[in-house]
Specification:
- The protein has about 475 residues and is α+β, with helices and mostly antiparallel strands.
- The chain has a domain at about 200-455.
- The protein has 16 helices and 14 strands.
Length: about 475
């Protein structure tokens, strides 16, 4: 039957009226039955990828001729992108400096240039290998010129060929075809970031525990943001003028001024349907519940004993022992250590006197139960035994990969003396090895919600949280007057 416009309009009005009556009936039913009309309406998480198109331009037309050197390549890039090098040179990826610390009444810039860790220990004197992760070319000693724009490495972040790699002193590996790589440039992808951040400390997954090559093609169980939404690193680490947001938390200091990442940027401060869970978010980091283990697919280094290096009888094994580095212990699917954390660290820098602890802190999370800005946070804690001067009571970064370094001469006395000289440190002529620990905040490998921690995994006698270490007399879920059972 054909319906004319007049009939259609009448039927439409009748339908609207019927829906209005139905709505009034439902409202009355709700009031009469006492149903909760204040039910929390859950906001949908923001998807940073929604409506975005990855920009791409075929650059092959700009690189028709062979490229003689990486610096010449950078000069070519700057013809079309004249401000890019200047922008990069203002960032920590170039300067290797971040926050300040106060020493002897003075502010001192800190960063990779003058901080000590308990993995490969220090950059100074070890430029040959360490600066393969610098976003520049040719850093060989203290006299490196940080003002030369042509030394900026565009390819390490923008290679789209998958063939780019860096070698000694930050130069491209000899096998790299610069023309092929330059023709492939694109917006940075996970594998670009992973070249350095997955391999920090001299190998896959060594340092972080939550960053390794398993994230390149992670499923949702391993990382919900990558596996379900296909996030790239820079979808969270948003970038403006080549300044990539976020800083490595291990280099934070009490004076670092930086906007910290916050899950609530996308998920709000009250992301749960259950009110009791939302009460946790003020004092417990999202990562604590949603990253129940780290090193989920590949093992990560948990201990490193430099004092065992140099053996002529032990066989090399990347996960157990290397003559040039010493003895290691790796673990997989590791339950984190939990500590209060404001996002800043107390930080040992080169030349500081060691604390009086049996195991010295390279860094230490700032925060306590009494600090309203602190949250309970998950950490990987790496333990080491590394060189120091027992007379001056300071850590000494040894010369390892440079000329005459320990990796070639296997002479601790020379390597430590030379390292002290390069770092402008006093040296008594005596050396030993001392225990240290270093905290690495866990932020990646956010699993699906079904894998999040349950109540009893924290609130039970066998739970993973040591409440006394966090400043509680007892498990707060047990109520007043209870004691912890362990």
């Amino acid at each position: 039957m054909r319906i004319d416009n007049t009939t259609y309009s009448k039927l439409r009005l009748i339908g609207i009226a019927a829906l209005a009556v139905l709505g009034l009936v439902l409202i009355g039913f709700t009031i009469k039955t006492g149903l909760n009309t204040n039910k929390v309406v859950m906001p949908e998480p923001i998807n940073p990828l929604e409506g975005r198109v990855l920009p791409h331009l075929d650059h092959s037309a700009y690189f028709k001729d062979s490229i003689t050197s990486p610096t010449e390549l950078t000069k070519t890039c700057l013809k079309c992108h004249p401000n890019s090098a200047k922008e990069v040179m203002k960032t920590p990826h170039w300067t290797w400096q971040s926050g300040d610390v106060m020493r002897n009444g003075k502010n001192i810039k800190t960063g990779k240039r003058n901080q000590v860790n308990n993995f490969c220990i220090s950059v100074v004197g070890n430029w040959k290998s360490c600066v393969s992760c610098h976003a520049g070319y040719g850093w060989k000693d203290q006299n490196y010129d940080f003002t030369k724009e042509e030394n900026v490495d565009c390819l390490v972040c923008h290679d789209g060929s998958g063939t780019y790699s860096k070698a000694n002193y930050g130069m491209p590996d000899k096998s790299v075809d610069l023309k092929t790589v330059a023709s492939s440039v694109r917006r940075p992808n996970r594998d670009n970031c992973g070249i350095c951040h997955f391999n920090g400390g001299g190998g896959m997954g060594v340092k972080h525990g939550d960053l390794d090559e398993s994230l390149l093609n992670a499923n949702a169980e391993l990382d919900i943001h990558i596996g379900k939404l296909n996030f790239q690193c820079i979808d969270c680490h948003e970038t403006k003028h080549h300044a990539i947001s976020g800083k490595l938390n291990t280099t934070y200091t009490e004076k670092t001024k930086v906007e910290r990442f916050d899950c609530a940027k996308c998920h709000t401060e009250k992301p749960h349907k259950e009110h009791r869970l939302n009460e946790h978010t003020a004092r417990i980091a999202c990562q604590t519940c949603h990253i129940p283990e780290f090193a989920r697919k590949r093992p990560t280094k948990m201990t490193w004993d430099w004092s065992k290096a140099g053996s002529t009888t032990r066989k090399d094994d990347a996960h157990e022992y290397l003559k040039i580095k010493g003895e290691f212990h790796y673990e997989e699917e590791v339950i984190p250590t939990y500590a209060w954390y404001t996002g800043k660290m107390e930080r040992y820098i080169t030349g500081d006197k060691l604390d009086n602890l049996e195991e010295h802190n390279i860094n230490n999370p700032i925060g306590s139960r009494k600090d309203p800005k602190a949250k309970i946070w998950p950490f990987k804690v790496h333990h080491a035994n590394q060189p120091y001067d027992p007379v001056n009571n300071i850590l000494i970064p040894p010369l390892t990969s440079g000329d005459g370094g320990y990796w070639t001469k296997f002479d601790w006395k020379y390597a430590i003396a030379k390292g002290a000289e390069l770092n402008n440190l006093p040296y008594s002529g005596k050396y030993g090895f001392t225990k240290t620990k270093m905290y690495w905040p866990i932020n990646h490998m956010v699993s699906t919600k079904k894998n999040a921690l349950t109540c009893v995994q924290c609130h039970s006698p066998e739970g993973r949280i040591n409440w006394q270490q966090l400043g509680y007399k007892h498990d707060p879920a047990q109520g007043a007057g209870k004691t912890i059972k362990k």
